[in-house]
User: Which sequence fits this backbone?
């Protein structure tokens, strides 16, 4: 549950909510969206069971299932929601030192290309 607490704190930091607000029963859109993002990260990246997430937030597991489905839908058309989610996810990953394999491969490729460019530059300078 320590990682779930980290996600919650990160979401609070990004959205400007308090832990009490995020864990409350409030139905205000910005609070529900923030809570939904935490549910999605906990489920998709930490692979926590719906029941464990529900217990942490004092919610029924069916509520968590509903929010995870809503999250997937919102990610496809709500640009503001998607941007906020990606910010929370990025900060959370960095806090845990978690890196996606695709991200690492992309970074390796970028560094290779940069190295090739530098080598070509050095060769040109040495020929002059």
Assistant:
């Amino acid at each position: 549950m320590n990682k779930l607490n980290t996600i919650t704190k990160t979401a609070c930091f990004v959205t400007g909510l308090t832990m009490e607000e995020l864990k409350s029963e409030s139905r205000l859109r910005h609070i529900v969206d923030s809570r939904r993002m935490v549910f999605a990260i906990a489920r998709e990246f930490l692979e926590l069971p719906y029941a464990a997430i529900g217990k942490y937030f004092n919610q029924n597991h069916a509520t968590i299932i509903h929010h995870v489905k809503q999250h997937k839908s919102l990610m496809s058309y709500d640009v503001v929601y998607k941007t906020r989610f990606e910010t929370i996810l990025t900060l959370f990953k960095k806090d845990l030192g978690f890196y996606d394999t695709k991200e690492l491969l992309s970074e390796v490729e970028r560094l290779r290309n940069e190295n090739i460019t530098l080598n070509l530059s050095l060769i040109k300078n040495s020929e002059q």
Notes: Residues 71 and 77 are 10 Å apart (CA to CA). The chain has two domains: 2-97, 99-128.
